[in-house]
Amino acid sequence: MIRGYSRSDNPREAIVLYMSMIAKGIAPPNNFTFPFLLNSCARLSSLEPGHEVHSHIIKHGFESDLFVRNALIHLYSVFGNLNLARTLFDESLVRDLVSYNTMIKGYAEVNQPESALCLFGEMQNSDEVTLVAVLSACARLGAFDLGKRLYHQYIENGVFNQNTILTAAVMDMYAKCGSIDSALEIFRRVGKNMKTGFVFNSMIAGLAQHGLGETAITVFRELISTGLKPDEVTFVGVLCACGHSGLIEEGKKLFESMFNAYGIKPQMEHYGCMVDLLGRYGCLEEAYDLVQKMPFEANSVIWRALLSACRTHGNVKIGEIAGQKLLEMEAQHGARYVLLSNILADANQWEEARQVRKVMEDHGIRKPPGWSYIELGGAIHRFVASDKSHPQGKEIELMLKDMAMRLKSAGYVPNTAQVMFDIDEEEKESVVSYHSEKLALAFGLMYCSPTDTIRIVKNLRICADCHKAFKLVSEIYGREITVRDTMRFHHFRNGSCSCMDFW
Questions:
Q1: pTM to 2 decimals?
Q2: Is the distance from CB of 138 to CB of 104 less than 8 angstroms?
Q3: Which end of the chain has fewer CB atoms within 10 angstroms, the N or the C?
Q4: Secondary structure (3-state) at 179
Q5: Euclidean distance between CA atoms 56 and 59, whole angstroms
Q6: Could you tell me which residues come within 8 angstroms of residue 451 by beta carbon, excluding any fewer than 6 positions away?
Q7: Where does 177-299 have alpha helices with state H?
């Protein structure tokens, strides 16, 4: 019964039944009881019942049992307590494949992909669960070389090549590492019987990130033609693809078809996609009107999309409304203050912009630092804005000077409009030249093979100055550069970007 409840829609009943069993002294728990209980706890909204079960495990002497310990690691991983999960993992005298898989999956899901890959390096064998988790970590980090090696070694011609979840994970890895053509190639090779909705959704989401809206719509139509029914995730992907490609009319038709044709009631994510699409296209009044007509209160994601669009199109009126809403919801999020102050500064409302910055300073709120990753020879190199502590720091400094000299010769003038500090123009130019993506680019120009694409992953949206500089660098140095920021992919080649400056 406890096992049955642990897999039901009401997992809390497993805990109630266990407590009743203990209170009535019916039978003592064993090493089968606790894994089912812990799996039930992992499906609840609070960790508190899990702590209580953990205390019972210690009381009854089952904490050293491998099955129980693996379930504990899973529980704490699900709730993001990776420190405690890792402590339990490290204390195991015996670790099996489940132990490693649980820990790696936990690291991948809480955005600690480096730790996931490090742990994977210790393993002697792996299975489909391992590979899905490690591929997810590769996707998050942009670890293209490792992800590609895993695909060729274990999946392409191996025993795992008939697993649809693994196939979708491979496609996701290629897409998020910037190789959308490889993702499409794998998708095209997948047999019809393996093209599940999950596989279609993965492909559509990848195309959306790369701004390939028309291709995403083609894949969406293929899904329909195969007799599959699109779900909520499908529409998030295809609407996002329309947003990154400026396909406003197609996006509107798809949004209307959700309920009319497929009986799917639009959720917050779908409204967010539409606000983003309308905002990017400059239809800010229409976007704001949609926010007001939503059947629920807008969340921070929607207000942020609207605020970003206001910055792009210079709409201070709606921008201030969206900015204030965001600050009410996320009062400690520094990036929101910066974005609002930049909108005011762009409109020459300098005093208002300074007031926003002053509120930030008075409350000790800081903008999250920009960082960028780049992979080289299977190793991940991380760069933080204005940080000169990298082991190759001196060489990077020289390359930055070489880049600056060549860019200047090509007519490049640094865009310092977003630098709000009270410093002179020369110092502002120095600030933008040490953005994390420029540090990563300098490293890539020095150490990546001339025939390889330089692949960079950034934790923030790429700024206008770096975007302009990267286009020129791709032409000056004859290199292909891919940048994945929080919004989308940018493929720089021959002096232009795949986003067509629409991002």
A1: 0.81
A2: no
A3: N
A4: coil
A5: 5
A6: none
A7: 180-189, 197-209, 213-225, 232-245, 248-262, 268-280, 284-293
The yes-or-no verdict on residue 158 having pLDDT over 70 is: no
User: Tokens representing 410?
Assistant: 């090509």
Alpha-carbon gap, residue 195 to 441, rounded angstroms: 37
Beta strands at 371-376 and 379-384: parallel, antiparallel or unpaired: antiparallel
The full set of domain ranges for the chain reads: 267-368, 376-497
Q: Are 38 and 50 in contact (CB under 8 A)?
A: yes
The identity of residue 350, as a single letter, is: W
List the structure tokens of 114: 């480096």
DSSP 456-479: EEESSPPPHHHHHHHHHHHHHTT-
- Confirm if 147 and 455 have CB atoms less than 8 A apart: no
What residues contact residue 24 under an 8 Å CB cut-off, 6+ apart?
A: none
Residues 49-81: tens digit of each pLDDT: 999 999 999 999 998 899 999 999 999 998 989
Q: Which of 312, 441, 325 is nearest to 381 (CA)?
A: 441
SS (H, E, C) 139-167: HHHCCHHHHHHHHHHHHCCCCCCCCHHHH
Length of the chain counted residue by residue: 503
Burial profile 424-462: b = 16 or more Cβ within 10 angstroms, e = fewer: eeeebbbbbbbbbbbbbbbbbbebbeeeebbbbbbbbbb
C-alpha to C-alpha distance for 72 and 85, rounded to whole angstroms: 7
Distance CA 481, CA 288 (A): 36
In angstroms and rounded to an integer, the radius of gyration of the C-alpha atoms of the chain is 25
Q: Which CATH superfamily is domain 267-368 in?
A: Tetratricopeptide repeat domain (1.25.40.10)
Tokens of 315: 């709409």
Q: What is the DSSP letter of 194?
A: G
**Separation between Cα atoms, residue 343 and residue 431, nearest integer Å:** 20
489 and 209 Cβ atoms separated by less than 8 Å: yes
